[in-house]
Prior knowledge:
Two copies of one chain form a homodimer.
Chain A: H1 4-11, H2 14-25, E1 28-33, H3 39-54, E2 58-63, E3 80-82, E4 91-97, H4 111-114, E5 115-122, E6 133-136, H5 143-151, H6 160-173, H7 184-195, H8 200-209, H9 213-224, E7 227-229, E8 234-239, H10 241-247, H11 258-261, E9 269-277, E10 280-287, H12 295-300, E11 304-305, E12 309-314, H13 318-333
Parallel strand pairs in A: 1-2, 1-4, 2-3, 4-5, 5-6, 8-9
Antiparallel strand pairs in A: 7-8, 9-10, 10-12, 11-12
Amino acid sequence: xxxxxxxxxxxxxxxxxxxxxxxxxxxxxxxxxxxxxxxxxxxxxxxxxxxxxxxxxxxxxxxxxxxxxxxxxxxxxxxxxxxxxxxxxxxxxxxxxxxxxxxxxxxxxxxxxxxxxxxxxxxxxxxxxxxxxxxxxxxxxxxxxxxxxxxxxxxxxxxxxxxxxxxxxxxxxxxxxxxxxxxxxxxxxxxxxxxxxxxxxxxxxxxxxxxxxxxxxxxxxxxxxxxxxxxxxxxxxxxxxxxxxxxxxxxxxxxxxxxxxxxxxxxxxxxxxxxxxxxxxxxxxxxxxxxxxxxxxxxxxxxxxxxxxxxxxxxxxxxxxxxxxxxxxxxxxxxxx
Amino acid sequence: xxxxxxxxxxxxxxxxxxxxxxxxxxxxxxxxxxxxxxxxxxxxxxxxxxxxxxxxxxxxxxxxxxxxxxxxxxxxxxxxxxxxxxxxxxxxxxxxxxxxxxxxxxxxxxxxxxxxxxxxxxxxxxxxxxxxxxxxxxxxxxxxxxxxxxxxxxxxxxxxxxxxxxxxxxxxxxxxxxxxxxxxxxxxxxxxxxxxxxxxxxxxxxxxxxxxxxxxxxxxxxxxxxxxxxxxxxxxxxxxxxxxxxxxxxxxxxxxxxxxxxxxxxxxxxxxxxxxxxxxxxxxxxxxxxxxxxxxxxxxxxxxxxxxxxxxxxxxxxxxxxxxxxxxxxxxxxxxx
Lengths: 337, 337
């Protein structure tokens, strides 16, 4: 059994001490995370912000986009200010959080206009190491793990609010402790955050378990309409304009529905067709293995995305959109319908 | 920060040592868990079974019901034999696992016909303490936590297969580390199980992300039939015998469907009615806050369970079962339909 104390010792990395020193010497500190922020971006940002505030420093929390509704229950999110081209305060230190590349701020931003000294804290493998200090650890489940490591340098700094923020960062970016990157360390940190007052029941509920009733009904409708194709390699379903209207659900509220189709056993690809307006179909593609790349299919129809998650819009009715897309799948993968 | 070593020390309870002694002195040992087994029942049963086998004892694993398809990927499940009235082997020790009441074996079973000495290991608050030794700890997230504690008494006993089984028990009964009963200990144990080789990626995928297509369709049907009651405090749905047959899904494979109803925003209680056979309805209740206790309601109808998750079987048709249960809810909580 690996020992908790031993792990605490190994955790005391030189670079973390260096970051602590820099923070203690600075007066004004800015913290920034990336556009379209996720749970790790928001949680890490506010945990670090609340922590630095507690040691008596002036701190600004910046984000190029609004905090998604689902994370607004976290204390500290109300402190986040909008970063845009007009921002002209230069801090002593600017800490970039969970941001692999400064281009992910969504603006042409001059790093040095944000801070005299740049600290880059991240767990993405493709991080560009653009900081004066780069604390980048791709073995961490989340940037939240690294922020925990930094804040643990100060005695008793982690309050229940900070523990909530860090727990949120970790639980979301580790896929509820399920992704490959989840390690024994991830659980040791979660253990410590719970003993410091993180309210895991509320957090899990807010993030994973609260769906408006009408959204849940529409998910049900989508699932009961699901069909297999290509000998079980593909699961697909659709939502008509009438269904959206009947349930009073809009397109944005149906983002993420694809995860329910993805649960199907044995499939390689899940597809959801959503009627945005008459004759205009939003197609979302999610592959379940690295071999089945979907971005190219989406780009064929003028869309884009990642290798395993992409989308496009096809100007056609549901039936034709499906036919066009299935033809493209047949050609690209050589699967038989 | 609570120390790992300190926790290991506190964990060494007298009763656990006593159980270890008893096991070491016995030759033939039977292990039994409850009917309609869930992840905690199956995971705890095979973890204990594989562990006892490793210390060179003859062991029988018994269950009144088949192992649900979803858990069959776990090594050791193939060792589980069917417990029925014809069973007539009497072991030196019979260990009851995750079984609050021997009646949960679903048969009129004479405890003493199963073993000369009965050990009762469980985390249900209403455990009947029917054993010669009762190791019952309602503060544990799962019986898996207690089995971990027992197996940890022997050096290097926990193999990757045992770690998989214990991780499964814990992750399922803690609701992926989200329920109230999840503690810092739960995460410390998970940390240790990962370092001993538990394959959390596979386990999470198999349990939470791989659903046979027909099961997914039935979930869809259940969700699209869902209704709110008691002014939005309750969400409920039902599955008829015809639906089960139409989709080729059995009762066991629909365990866990309630988690989808539970996602509804604002509810305090989710209820699923499942028609087991004509005139016999299985009722599953899951509350979303500590104030709404459901065990008492289930016991009114001869069932049982936890404060926040319980079930019972009502001999009636769907409509009458619903009426009876709703009446009991009205009386107990004072909610208006």
